[in-house]
Amino acid sequence: GSELTIDPNQTHIIDGKIYQIQSSELKFIRRIYRQIDGSLKLVCENKDFESVVVPSDSVKIIGRVIAWKVVD
Hints:
The chain is built from no helices and six strands. It is mostly beta strands and about 70 residues long. The chain has a six-stranded antiparallel beta sheet with strand order 1-6-2-3-4-5, with no helix packed on it. The relative contact order is 0.38.
C-alpha cells in the first residue's frame, strides 16, 4: 500500500540506497549493498523476506527510490 517515486536516471548503485530492480521478468524494490566480490546483497524492507546475494549481472537497475510514502 506504499507509494514510491522512482528516478530512472539514478541507476548507479550507492550502498544502502533503495532501488527498483528487475530479475528475469520480475520487478522488486530492494536496498542494495555491493559485496567485495562484485556481487550484490539485496535486502527487503519487509523482514518476512530474507536477504539474498546475487551476481551483479543477474539484475537490472530500473531506478532509485527517491520518495516513499506509506499509505495505510
